[in-house]
Amino acid sequence: MFLFGFVQFCGISAVLFYTPTILKDAKVDEVLSNLININKNSATLLASAMSAMPMLFFILLGMWLMDRAGRRSILLYTTPILFLTMVIMSLARVVHLPSAVQSVVLIGCIMSFLSFFNMGFGAVPNIICSEIFPTKVRGACLGICSLTTFLCTTVVTLSFPALNNLLGAPTVFGFFAFMSLVSWVFTFLKVPETKGIPLEIITEFFAVKKLE
Description:
This protein is an all-alpha fold and 212 residues long. 84% of the residues lie in helices and 0% in strands. The radius of gyration is 19 Å and the shape is elongated.
């Protein structure tokens, strides 16, 4: 449940659903429309599409690394990128940068965030949670995890516009950065590596840990 909660509170729903709003607030649409001579709405859609383009490659890369590098390792190496991109996005809205530079920074950060998220947190929690639960309660436990995802997605999606207007983008992105850092600590301390371990052995391992 904590893993699925961190998936959302790292900011994925806010970035994924509100990319056009984030870019428009930072005047990226104006920069692109002046640069390539298109209207602002088209510029916003183009910037959003550019941000999402590398995701497929990183999803495939994550699939390839899943049984090579390991689930835990992927999370530990990708989560700091989420933290870094959110910090940069926060600072980019505070530091007075030229509009063109700020546009490039924000598009690059969103692109990196979406790519590394889908490589790590986008897939790994589902795999880990399908492996660590005993067979007799796996269905119920996965249902609880799915409910956690739904509730956290709802909270983040509905609260982002209000918090963005009330506190400002730098504060909201700073919160997502903090939660990314907390999720890394949680992964380091609590998430086991299940790469190459049969389900039966994983179940026995957790049974022994419970007895201890």
